[in-house]
Amino acid sequence: MERLDAFMARANATYYAARDPYADFTTAPEISQSFGEVLGLWAAVVWQMMGAPDPVILAEAGPGRGTLMADALRAIGRAAPAFRAALRLHLVETSPRLRALQAGRLPDAVWHDRIEDLPAGPLLLLANEFLDALPIRQFVRRGAGWTERHVESGRFVELPAAAPDLDAAEGEVVELGEAGRALAAGLGARLAAEGGAALFIDYGPEHRAPGDSLQALRFRAPSDPLSEVGTADLTAHVDFSAIAAAAHAAGAATQGPVPQGVFLARLGLPQRTDALARGKSPAQAAALLAGARRLTEPHAMGRLFKALALCHPGLPELPGFAG
Ligand code: SAH
Question: Which residues does 251 contact at the CB level (< 8 Å), separation at least 6?
Answer without folding.
Answer: 188, 189, 192, 193, 313
